[in-house]
Amino acid sequence: MTRALIGGAILIAMAWPAQAAWVRVETDKFVVYGQGGERAVAAYATKLNTYDAVLRRFHPSTLERKPDTKVQVFMVSSRDDLRRVRPRLPRSVAGFYSAMSEGVFAMALKDGGLGEDDVMFHEYAHHFMWENFPAAYPAWFVEGWAEYFMTTEIKPDEIKIGGYNVGRAHGIFGETWIPLEDLLSKTSFETREQKRDVYYSLAWLFTHYMRSDPTRAVQLDMAIRAIAAGKDPVKSFETATGKSMEELTQALKKYQRLQILGIKNPGAPVPMKITTLSKSADDLLLDNLRLILTSTGDLDADFLAGVRRKAARHPGDAFAEQVLARAEFVMGDVSAGEAITKRRLDANPNDFEDLLLAGTGQLVAGMRDPKQRDARYKAARTPLAKAYGVNNADFRPLYAYALSRSIEPTFPTGNDMKALLEARYLAPAVQELSWRAGMALLRKGRRDEAALMLAPVINNPHGGRAAARAREMLNSGRIGVLDLDEPEDEEEPAPPSGQPPAKSAT
User: Tens digit of pLDDT for each residue in 284-300?
Assistant: First the structure.
């Protein structure tokens, strides 16, 4: 699949004993992996489910919705584990979130530095918004909304919403503000790096201010709707509030009494399935995640040799064989990957993960060698169609099949469009799906539908080149076969830590 990662960094603090067996806890919304023993991993999964319930309580239209694609969260205890998965991850970053063509993943490190749950909650708030409201929200509101809910404090008896983060408070009281006009019209990454913490802090404060009063909440909704319709953001807020930017700025500076909302923690048990993983996971679970996230053409001979060596320790282990096959497809001997998946499918022709791996492995191999792309993409279709027949509620085979069809002159046919739109329906937070569906709609001349599909990509604060390219294609209305490929972005810089800057030595 296209290896473009659209996401932000996440941080979190939890105490996880090292060198313990990996435990997998699955709820109706999350799959959490950790090494802290069953009780600790289950407790964290419960906390995530409780936070999701808080977001749904404040957005009643989502109460009955059950996500088709679960967020997979990996809890680790060291930065070495993070860099084992993302070797080029800056050492200042304590985790990440990525919604991509092979799933939705978050990796979290204890002692992240912004507070025990703040940034994990921040990034899940983004995910929740994109999953349930994939619309054209302005960048500052996307960040401010996440900042507002990220400080949710979950205790056994009570849940508090609307508090503040100490680091973000420093951005309000200890730094010179950026103009409100800049906040409303720019993304965080269009803001000078030295002022990004102020951007996040001011986005939080402005969201808090507008949400804290019923009249202002209506004005906020009016302005957001106007901006989504293409109106100027500054004029939209001046019209909705009846205040100039200077008057709004002064109102923000006077806004110091935060409205903290408290609700009872229902403490309802969360149905979950707990599994202690096999020994092969100790060796290969994080290596498998690295392979999933690896950009096409990013080869590492030492890493590949390590995967081969570790897999050899677990002969006959299903997970070890699947990781080895993936490694061969992504950066090794494609024929060896084919041999593994063929042997496994000969033994069990309806294994969903093996069928999916056999198909996506061909796509990755085709990306690695453009001369073989057409043949590889065609070879991918049979196992992917079978995988869809085994599980039609998983977006991955649908999207991969549509991608395998993208080389054809007739693409997108009506069936191709159906596959793309269904995949996007199953995983709306994966903006790669919105990208490709939007490009296909443009190619069919359905510009208005494409604009709605591409809106979350264009307005993603972390969208990078994908956002810029989507805007360009939408405005030009011209698209060729090559334009269907999503541009691969460099790794996004981490959001500011939220900590007051260290004082220089004197």
Answer: 999 999 999 998 778 89
